[in-house]
Write a structure and sequence with these properties.
Largest sheet of chain A: 7 strands, mixed
Strand content of chain A: 15-25%
Oligomer: homodimer
Number of domains of chain A: 2
CATH topology of the largest domain in chain A: Rossmann fold
Radius of gyration of chain A: 21 Å
């Protein structure tokens, strides 16, 4: 059994999803892959929970999740919650944990930020690589803004960066690089934002104006309180840049994407489309010439890309395999954790 | 640059597809992956074409393909065609080539045979592993009949068996084992036979009886002259067994599958289904309890599995990622070669 020590940097929905999956599947992953996943540090703005010798080399993820949930319900701060359950919390910040706590894989799960140079994610990833850690991340910002710089840093450090979770959540897409290795990928068209897909699906089904569908999505926890990044197409554009660089080998940046969101779409437009056998989807599209575009597009109702609800889908045109399509769940803590844990397993099993 | 020597055993549609792809993409694969693919032997019932010293270590795949095409058009035998173009042909049989000609990867591309213990494919694969070759194959028979035996033989020999091409052609499915490594795959439902899908699609579109749609498919080269393996569901069942063993970790055999084909489906049944918002598809289905079934099933028209024409599709239910779906081209020499070449690249790049 090979011990794989993880730090989780950023303990929001995704970080907690990773802890939850380790709690549920540590034994199974040990049995199937001979890997013993141990969480040695969890760090967020409130400080760092660190494994002590008494923990036998790893934090108990179930205890941490329970502590935060119960403490939160009682109005305690995360730190108070953890300490009340006997978890050691130190004043350490993320870069210190990444550098100083011995571990194999840094799980970078802080929130995406494309306005501020992808920080703090970018620095976390570079620090981790320099310290000899592999990095697995769900954070789109650093990959969208500094793709080639990060890949070069990984190469220099002889470490891997796993980033399947950055695009399409649990939908396999980044790994299609390897799956379709013999192919040139010529073009990608994708529905890469579940919130927009949900809103457009509901507008079409119920003849509902954009604002109503958005409010419904917010009430259901599908859209965020500040939905701008989703509905203006920014999130789709960021993911498109990652796909362009990772799968098409381009050197694209966010500023290269022509972006139109879904805020101007009317129920009338959807109904006119439907009368002609089409639906409207927010499509991110990139080709080998470096044309990157995010915009609402007509999609034939019978086309495989016409997936509903919050699903994500991507269609890849390739030189040998022709068209290949994947569909899956684009969001959710467990879904992102599925991609992260799979990335970790592949780093050690290949 | 690492030289990777290939033998191609069986030079029908798939074997020629592999030669074609090597001809077209050798330089590109060298550049992208640092692998120099060289075909050192091509063997079929007519004998073995072997690289001589004059060939600089590899056969020219373009010359071989051209020779066979031109010679065939002139009524020459394959052997005569090749010799007329200066290719050395020996009386060697496949097992001799596999054992005696030095190479790294045996591409086993002989026709599938499930009635005769998967031979000659099974012996070819075992011989290759024993001789220290990796094996990449499109041949479903050996994998469907002797899955665990072959995997154990590969493990003992410390060699890999790539078999992405056996199911779904160019559609990524076997590799989802790795892509979704952190997941348990709970259940798979798939449209795994493009011929049946084409026939059912056409029957539904044109209100056509089965026999007419079959004849159309034969005229278009989609169905074989003897279509029984496809339309009786045998081909789907064989692929389902491979998926059951490879992705669900079962120890399933062909005889465990309950199989119903599409020969009894009437245009009336399809039209009744359509009036209620359904289509009929030949679905192969397996779950973790080992229930294996191939049968025509109703699929809602709006369901992502409703793909038309000759496409293949598969829906995987997983414990973490939820439902994941893939769609792609299930047949064709270049499509199978896409999977084979990608398997070869992954063997040497991981």
């Amino acid at each position: 059994m090979r011990e794989v020590k993880l730090s989780i940097v950023g303990f929001g929905v995704v970080g907690r999803g990773v802890a939850e999956v380790v709690a549920r599947k540590r034994a199974e992953i040990g049995e199937r892959f001979g890997l013993d996943l141990r969480i040695v540090a969890v760090v967020d703005l409130w400080g760092a929970a660190l494994a002590s010798d008494a923990d036998g080399g790893g934090l108990d993820p179930r205890r941490i999740l329970d502590a935060l949930q119960k403490g939160g319900a009682e109005g305690l701060s995360p730190r108070e919650s953890l300490e009340a359950h006997g978890v050691r919390v130190e004043e350490l910040q993320s870069p210190d944990v990444i550098q100083e706590v011995e571990h194999d894989v840094t799980v970078e799960a802080t929130p995406t930020n494309v306005d501020n140079d992808g920080e703090p994610g970018t620095s976390h990833i570079l620090t981790a690589l320099k310290a000899g850690r592999h990095v697995v991340t769900s954070n789109k910002g650093p990959l969208a803004l500094h793709f080639n710089k990060l890949m070069q840093a990984a190469k220099r450090a002889d470490r891997k960066i796993g980033f399947e979770a950055t695009v399409g959540g649990a939908m396999p897409i980044i790994s299609l690089r390897d799956t379709l290795a013999g192919n040139e990928i010529l073009c990608i068209k994708g529905i890469l934002n579940g919130t927009c897909n949900y809103i457009l699906t509901r507008m079409g089904e119920e003849n509902m104006p954009f604002e109503h569908a958005l409010r419904e999505a917010q009430e259901m926890g599908i859209a965020e309180a500040d939905p701008r990044s989703d509905v203006l197409g920014v999130d789709t554009a960021v993911k498109l840049v990652i796909l362009a660089n990772a799968l098409l080998g381009l050197d694209a940046a966010y500023k290269d994407v022509r972006v139109t969101g879904i805020t101007e779409i009317t129920p009338e437009a959807l109904s006119l489309a439907r009368d002609n056998g089409y639906v409207i989807k927010l499509i991110g599209e990139v080709d080998r010439d470096g044309k990157l575009e995010v915009a609402p597009k007509l999609v034939p109702e019978t086309h495989p890309l016409n997936v509903g609800g919050t699903l994500n889908a991507a269609l890849l045109k390739t030189d040998l395999a022709g068209e290949v399509m994947v569909v899956g769940r684009g969001a959710g803590g467990i879904e992102a954790a599925s991609a992260i844990i799979s990335d970790i397993i592949r780093i050690f099993k290949n």
